[in-house]
């Protein structure tokens, strides 16, 4: 360990050298005139120790080396930011020996702790914390020029842990790291950010095109089969690359690389992408919209509009479909297509769905109190809500709180939802059916293989998708076949998207039971719906 002395009085050099001569083993003391010279000496040494007085001591943020403080008198409290201190009148060879031994042991312990904190114990490469410090230093050293940051995510690695166990996953991870290191050169850096995510810092000062070349090699190398415990495994990867530039910080650069990785993953293949500002701006917009939607749920910015369903036999309104709208403070009234897919993807569809059910039941209670008669209230139910363990308990509580007969509640399911995990769907539907809730199959005809489930699932209604109704001039036989199928299965048939009298007449001739669409009414907020449901409006709809 190199000893570097920075003091304003020569007396300290004389005392320290005298003590060092009296100690076993040769130990050199390097005396420097200022902090710049001290830095040069410490940087040249693999392990350096700075001995300095309070007057010459550098600022804590400027000195990364261990410090022993040289004092004229015993301090009243231990000095902060130093490994130890020496008092002039108490200085002896034995005290100096103990001080230096303590400093070495403490530095060794701190080094071990730093390695544990900054290095991944499995692979031996730096972890997220260590890489963050490395990235900050590299950006400062190069002023952000000639560096390319890569963010890599392994595809399907979790399935290896699930199927073969975590020990096999660890052995596979070591193979992955070895393949990554084989593609890097001196001056590059590799880090494991956690789980199956890695960061690569590439030096591209001499060849800017090198980043693309390395990315091609990495994707190709990681796509090769792996052998673990006699099993041949295939893994893909998604890699994003982001160039550094002057003035960019470590966090924004990391975000750019991660955004590029997500763009690569969206391609659903073992591939890589450079950071694209325009695509990233779109992703940020979705993230911001998701945040706004969370706030909208809390602020009460959502409302329900209700589209009436007309019974062709009686000419009266017999049901309503609840359709959620978002009264956005800047973008105005948003239809479901503008935010429901985002809610599905983010999981917000579950609390949003419960809000819709609660609001619809409350409004149905209001309508019943106004004397509009018995109406079925149809609510779209997401497949995600089927998977929620609190569905049955929450629904039972809401029905009890609103005092609504569950026989008047109807859940609309899409064919896609019915087809996914159909056994789980069937069990949930049967349990809800015991409460009295009934089900309709929405967008009928747009899914796959739903016919085999129609007889086994407790479905009461089929809703013909509006796309078939709109094109009845060309596919009237198909619509007629759907109606006939519903009759044979003793199901009610509801045609959506009815906009013309000709469509209405054809559907009535085919034997459809109910219709829904702009010919009857557009979706209406509760206040307008109340007026629509008045006796005058009802009389105008009688057939």
Number of strands: 22
Helix- and strand-based class?
alpha/beta
Inertia-based shape: elongated
Low-confidence stretches: none
Q: Specify Rg, calculated over alpha carbons.
A: 36 Å
Q: Work out the helicity level.
A: 40-55%
Strand percent estimate: 15-25%
Distance between the termini: 100 Å
Average predicted local confidence, pLDDT = 85
Strands ordered across the widest β-sheet: 13-14-16-17-18-19-20-21
* Total of helices: 21
Characterize the main sheet: 8 strands, mixed, barrel
How would you describe what is shown here?
By secondary structure, this protein is an alpha/beta fold. The model has no long low-confidence stretch (mean pLDDT 85). The strands form four sheets. The chain has an eight-stranded mixed barrel with strand order 13-14-16-17-18-19-20-21, surrounded by four helices. Strands 2-1-3-4-5 form a five-stranded parallel β-sheet, with helices on both faces. It has a five-stranded mixed β-sheet with strand order 7-8-6-11-12, with helices on both faces. The longest helix has 26 residues, at 93-118. Strand 13 and strand 14 form a beta hairpin.
Task: Please write out the topology.
Elements (H helix, E strand, L loop, with lengths): L1 E5 L3 H12 L7 E3 L3 H10 L3 E5 L14 E5 L12 E4 L5 H26 L9 H15 L4 E9 L1 H8 L1 H17 L6 E6 L2 E7 L6 H14 L2 E3 L2 E3 L2 E8 L6 H17 L4 E4 L2 H23 L2 E10 L5 E12 L3 E3 L5 H7 L2 H21 L6 E5 L2 H4 L4 H12 L6 E6 H5 L2 H14 L2 E7 L6 H4 L6 E4 L1 H5 L1 H17 L3 E5 L4 H10 L3 E3 L7 E2 H7 L2 H7 L2
Parallel strand pairs: 1-2, 1-3, 3-4, 4-5, 11-12, 14-16, 16-17, 17-18, 18-19, 19-20, 20-21
Antiparallel strand pairs: 6-8, 6-11, 7-8, 9-10, 13-14, 13-21, 13-22, 14-15
């Amino acid at each position: 360990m190199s000893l570097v002395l920075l003091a304003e009085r020569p007396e300290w050099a004389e005392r320290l050298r005298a003590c060092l001569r009296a100690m076993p083993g040769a130990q050199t003391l390097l005396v420097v005139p200022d902090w710049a010279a001290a830095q040069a000496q410490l940087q040249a040494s693999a392990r350096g120790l700075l001995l300095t007085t309070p007057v010459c001591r550098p600022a804590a943020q400027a000195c990364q080396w261990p410090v022993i403080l040289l004092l004229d008198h015993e301090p009243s409290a231990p000095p902060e930011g130093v490994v130890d201190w020496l008092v002039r009148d108490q200085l002896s060879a034995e005290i100096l020996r103990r001080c230096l031994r303590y400093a070495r042991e403490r530095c060794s312990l701190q080094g071990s702790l730093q390695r544990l904190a900054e290095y991944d114990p499995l692979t031996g490469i730096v972890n997220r914390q260590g890489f963050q410090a490395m990235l900050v230093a590299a950006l400062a050293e190069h002023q952000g020029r000639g560096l390319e940051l890569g963010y890599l995510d392994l595809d399907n690695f979790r399935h290896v842990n699930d199927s073969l166990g975590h020990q096999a996953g660890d052995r596979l991870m070591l193979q992955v790291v070895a393949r990554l290191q084989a593609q890097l050169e001196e001056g590059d850096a590799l880090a494991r950010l956690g789980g199956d995510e890695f960061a690569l810092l590439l030096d591209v000062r001499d060849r800017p095109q090198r980043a693309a070349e390395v990315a091609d090699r990495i994707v190709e190398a990681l796509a090769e089969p792996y052998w673990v415990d006699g099993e041949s495994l295939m893994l893909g990867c998604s890699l994003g690359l982001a160039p550094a530039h002057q003035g960019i910080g470590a966090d924004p650069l990391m975000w750019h690389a991660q955004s590029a990785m997500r763009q690569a993953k969206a391609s659903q293949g073992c591939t890589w992408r450079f950071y694209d500002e325009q695509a990233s701006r779109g992703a940020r917009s979705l993230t911001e919209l998701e945040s706004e939607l969370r706030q909208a749920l809390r602020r009460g910015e959502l409302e329900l509009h209700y589209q009436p369903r007309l019974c062709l036999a009686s000419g009266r309104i017999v049901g309503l479909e609840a359709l959620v709208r978002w009264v956005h403070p800047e973008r105005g009234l948003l239809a479901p297509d503008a935010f429901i897919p985002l809610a599905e993807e983010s999981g917000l569809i579950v609390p949003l769905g419960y809000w819709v059910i609660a609001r619809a039941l409350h409004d149905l209670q209001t309508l019943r109190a106004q004397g509009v008669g018995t109406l079925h209230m149809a609510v779209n139910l997401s497949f995600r809500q089927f998977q929620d363990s609190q569905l049955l308990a929450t629904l039972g509580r809401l029905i009890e709180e609103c005092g609504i007969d569950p026989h008047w509640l109807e859940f609309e399911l899409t064919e896609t939802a019915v087809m996914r995990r159909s056994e789980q769907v069937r069990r949930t539907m049967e349990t809800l059916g015991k409460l009295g809730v009934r089900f309709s199959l929405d967008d009928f005809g747009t899914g796959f293989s739903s016919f085999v489930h129609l007889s086994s699932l407790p479905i009461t209604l089929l809703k013909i998708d509006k796309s078939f109704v709109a094109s009845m001039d060309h596919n009237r036989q198909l619509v007629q076949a759907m109606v006939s199928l519903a009759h044979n299965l003793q199901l009610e048939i509801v045609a959506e998207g009815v906009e013309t009298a000709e469509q209405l007449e054809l559907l009535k001739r085919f034997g459809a039971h109910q219709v829904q669409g702009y010919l009857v009414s557009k979706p209406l907020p509760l206040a307008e719906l109340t007026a629509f449901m008045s006796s005058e409006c009802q009389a105008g709809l009688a057939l």
